[in-house]
Automatic annotation (TrEMBL):
Entry superkingdom: Bacteria
Keywords (A to Z) from UniProt: Membrane, Transmembrane, Transmembrane helix
InterPro entries assigned to the protein according to its UniProt record, in alphabetical order: DUF4307
Transmembrane region(s): 41-62
Pfam families: DUF4307
Protein name: DUF4307 domain-containing protein
Length: 150
């Protein structure tokens, strides 16, 4: 009578070395082996991709912030039904030409006046402007929509 390994539940236990040998043969046959150099190459390529993505994001962020124009609205005055004046301060990049879109809004925030003004480079860091915007109807406010470099 041969001795068999019996589990606590009374069943037969298979020999572990035979199962791993069979699994190894199947893995080799179907290309499921994990080679150390493949694993290392995968993680190196992931790291290179991550570093490149972070470098790209940093470059885009710096590029956008260098061309950014800081605007601070200082006030507006509704002149009459046909005009609004908007006062603001702008801080463009040093020596850059820029333009600003200035708009007049009614009480429902609909655009009733619009004007694009171009500015030449100036030596000061920040400069104040007051611009008149013609309107089609009575406006309740005037704002600077956006500014950009030319």
């Amino acid at each position: 009578m041969t001795k068999r390994a019996i589990t606590k539940r009374g069943g037969r236990r298979r020999a572990a070395p035979q199962r791993t040998a069979l699994q190894k043969k199947l893995d080799d046959r179907y290309g499921r082996t994990s080679l150390p150099w493949r694993r290392r190459a995968f993680w190196i390529s992931v790291a290179v991709f991550a570093v490149a993505a972070i470098a790209y994001l940093v470059w885009i962020t710096l590029q956008n912030s260098l061309d950014d124009i800081s605007i601070a609205e200082t006030g507006y005055l509704v002149v009459d039904e046909r005009a609004v004046t908007v006062s603001f301060q702008a801080t463009p990049p040093s020596g850059a030409r820029f333009a600003c879109a200035i708009q007049a809004l009614d009480e429902d925030f609909g655009v009733v006046g619009w004007r694009v003004v171009e500015y030449a480079p100036f030596p000061e860091t920040t400069r104040s402007f007051t611009e008149r915007v013609p309107t089609l109807a009575l406006a309740t406010t005037g704002t600077v929509k956006e500014c950009w470099t030319i």
